């Protein structure tokens, strides 16, 4: 198996995996979504809320506010499967504001100097003149399989590597390149051919195939090659999400092997 990183930023990573199989790639995708622990506000104590927003809606917004959850920030915090999880207070947040103003995520005061909202400009609630809000909240680690607020990725998807071929037995159909919605193809009448500008941007929609009257172009894919994309909400880097997902997949595999070796007794 070969892996090639095509692009990487703080919140997004695109890489190519060659000589792999769909079940393996999909297992990594699922682990990245539901088995990577992340910090999110779990318990909310609304002491005062004079705004027009219902308490439940406000608590839901707080829970979906991305919090810094990299390995340096969450070290030492218990996981849901730990015995002391329920008794641990978590990371405490407080919010005390008075209108008129729009209350943003930056107004959340954390008990931990490292753990805070990833973005400062997320609007939480609007307060009119004289309206006050007083909230205490606790953030804990959790998994995406329990609630969407613990999913670290906003995009975690893959597609099989596209393949575009041409039928040399028929006349060149220059018009089929115009049908591509992503500009992957370009007609070059001077060199008498259709150029492939960016094969990896092809969505395999086959608009070009349907537009070709004589079947000049064919769109398929490499069966065991994939383009994988991970985008996070900023709570942790895509590289960390990928590493944790692979580690969790390895742990599951080891557990299954032990189960098989012990004759299925546990």
TrEMBL record:
Major localisation: cytoplasm
Listed cofactors: [3Fe-4S] cluster
Alphabetized InterPro entries for the sequence: DNA-dir_RNA_pol_insert, DNA-dir_RNA_pol_RpoA/D/Rpb3, RBP11-like, RNAP_Rpo3/Rpb3/RPAC1, RNApol_insert_sf, Rpo3/RPB3_RNA_Pol_subunit
Pfam families: RNA_pol_A_bac, RNA_pol_L
Keywords annotated in UniProt: 3Fe-4S, Cytoplasm, DNA-directed RNA polymerase, Iron, Iron-sulfur, Metal-binding, Nucleotidyltransferase, Transcription, Transferase
Protein's name according to its UniProt entry: DNA-directed RNA polymerase subunit Rpo3
Domain (DNA-directed RNA polymerase RpoA/D/Rpb3-type) ranges: 12-259
SMART domains per UniProt: RPOLD (SM00662)
SUPFAM superfamilies (alphabetical): Insert subdomain of RNA polymerase alpha subunit, RBP11-like subunits of RNA polymerase
